Amino acid sequence: MKLLKVISIFLLLTIFISSCAKTPQDEVSRPTEETKNGDYSENSETLGEFGAELNLRKVIYKASKNGKIVGESEQYVKNGEDTKEVKAVAEDGYVFAGWSDGVKDRVRQDKDVREDISVTANFLSVNDKFTVKYAISKGGKIIDVVEKRASVEKTISYTAPKNPPLAYTEGEWDDGVVGAKRVDDVCSHGQTFIYEYKPLAAGVPTIEIKTKDGGGVTDRINYKECKVTLANTEEEYCFDNVSAQIRGRGNSSWGYPKKGFRLKFDEKIEILGAGHKAKSWNFISNYGDKSLIRNMIAYDMSSVLSGLDYTVMHEFIDVYIDGDYCGLYMVTDKIDVSKGRLDLDKNIYSDPSKMTFVLEIGATNDDNKADMVKNVDCFSTSKDSNGSYYINYPETDDPAYRASVHLTYIKDYVEQCLDALSNEDWDLICDLIDIDSFIDHYIIQELYANKDGFWRSVYFYKAPNGKLYAGPVWDLDQGAGNVSGCYAEGAYETYPYTDFEYESSKYHKELGKPWIACASTWYRRLLRNEEFVELLRARLAEVGPALMVVLEKATTDGSVADSYYSLYSEAMERNFERWKIMGKTVWPNTPAIVDITTVKGQIDYMREWLIERYDVLCEHYEVY
After folding, report:
1. I need a labelling partner for 516 at 20 to 30 A (CA). Which of 188, 286, 322, 479 fits?
2. Any idea what DSSP says for residue 261?
3. What pLDDT is attached to residue 571?
4. Residue 211: which residues within 8 A CB-CB, separation 6 or more?
5. Which stretches of the chain drop beneath a pLDDT of 70?
6. Which residues pair with 506 in a beta bridge?
7. Taking Cα atoms as reference points, which of 199, 272, 215, 270 lies closest to residue 248?
């Protein structure tokens, strides 16, 4: 048997060399019946090994019933070379109906062959009809299929719908036909052609997310696999079909129909020029903020205040999930300890004073871990009646983390700070907390009269061997007049909740209009210190011009070319075409906000509210 195999290879090699000498293209076709010494199938294994050794590609042309192939139906060609020409010929009463791979010319020669090919020529009776399907798709999701039939001697004409879905534009056919209209003949029989609408490029980056199950974002606890494409921005920031996982995010905002979500990529990736790479990125819906820019302006303000070392990256982006346009979102960092974010030591040490801690007041993260893992990642203290504290960092499921050591340490440190504040021990206060960060953080929280201020979504961090810092600033869409049931609507008429604790507090009676000054245990006590008030007064005067420059980003009259409205008004209007909430009450809108039915009006209201609110603070703290 081995001898026979060797002889076969020798004979085939001889044939190949002879063929090379006779043909200028160095083509290798199927050996003749005589050369094979019998049926071809008997030597298929040997020929396969021979073909692999010589880097050959096998090409088979077959015919369905009622037709035949003229020419060499089975050929071997060297990798990258061309096949010999073949012709599909129909029997009498039949017509050629195309090749199985979509080629329409009955005479074919495959060029630059680099893989095995096996195709079939199809034939139909002259009395038959041919059928073609046309599918309309957006974001890879088929939304309509049309089937058309015609006699074999005729053609089918079809035009894709002229009105694309919201936030999509004219598309293209998957076989390269240009334009919405196409004409197909019998050679397209049995095929389906897809017309794919493209996301609208309207001056804003677009991100397309295709989940593995096609079901969108339905769960804020468990991730699901997805593929992500980012386009319509600088080429260096674009990427295509990148693997990631997605889940929902948000606390009260999770109840909105426009869902916020988090993407966690398999590899670290940079988003829209953030300047750093990370796996996890947040996408904020801002559904309850009809200006869409309350958070944007707050983060812009944070960026110009030097006392706040870190501000989250924040950019607008149009979002498409499983073919559905979801609206205009804001992409941001996840508050995390990593390069480009809170760039501090990430290690867990047996000596916790050497570590970084990130705390969220209110202990309400996306997973509600604080409620599920009591005494591991969450603590409360009788020294602060506002709520508890969630350990956002370090990761409490890390094997090196021990609650008895690390949680105990940070809880004791927070209580030391609160004791110092209660005792009005200014020197100790300065030793324990970073005054500059607390002042700048207070200015933004009070400027917005943030409903969540020091109840939830407020962050502190402690640097290794360092002090407790206020920040990063986070989640201020429920501010700047966008809160019902909490206080009156005007910037001059803002008061905290009228519960017994605050009403009976001398600080409420004395402070009156400021909100955070009453609502926050930290600032109620800090403001007892004249040293803090003096520093705050000077800082308000110092940063006023910079804050007003930031508020120019909220102009809508066209005088500022890079204002958010100038840059994104089309995308904003499209968002509210998708989510028809203008003129309707969406928690936490006040009646004044419900009465405003345009994006321009919403932005104008917010801007004027913040300008007036700054005047309130200057008046209260006697900044002239």
Report:
1. 286
2. E
3. 95
4. 217, 224, 225, 226, 246, 321, 322
5. 1-53, 363-375, 386, 453-454, 484-513
6. none
7. 215
